[in-house]
Amino acid sequence: MTEIAVGTELPPFSRATGFGNWNRFAAVNDEFVPIHMDDEAARAAGHPTAIGMGTLQWSYLHNLLRDWLGGRGAILRVEGQFRGRNTRGMTVTARGIVTALGEENGTRTATLDVWTEDEHGTRLLPGTAVVSLE
């Protein structure tokens, strides 16, 4: 890992989403909810198409952080608020930027703004994360 400073941007983590991704995720998490699998069920619930699972977006944030940490350190906390839907065919990108460096229980830490966004830059899940750097 290179030197970390406030303003360090994490390399983005992107995935094109759709039924294949969602089906695999649903199988692992026993989350076969109709609005995630069927366009008609999603439209009946007021969505334009089937929508991705919120927990899948959380997994993109965790992948972003784990990839950046590269086996060093650990994810201590992640929090955020869902602000937009992940619809079928959308590319979702997880991004992050270091906003503070500090220490917690004797361990060096970084606080980050993290988020997922669609291909237009609309933030779907903005949040914050704290990671240990050791």
UniProtKB/TrEMBL annotation:
**Spans through the membrane:** none
Q: Which domain of life is it from?
A: Bacteria
- What organism is this sequence from? Amycolatopsis acidicola
SUPFAM superfamilies, sorted: Thioesterase/thiol ester dehydrase-isomerase
| Family label | Belongs to the enoyl-CoA hydratase/isomerase family.
Lineage summary:
Bacteria, Bacillati, Actinomycetota, Actinomycetes, Pseudonocardiales
> What does UniProt give as the signal peptide span?
none
Instruction: Give the Gene3D superfamilies listed for this entry.
Output: Hotdog Thioesterase
Q: Where is the MaoC-like domain?
A: 23-78
The name on file for this protein is MaoC-like domain-containing protein
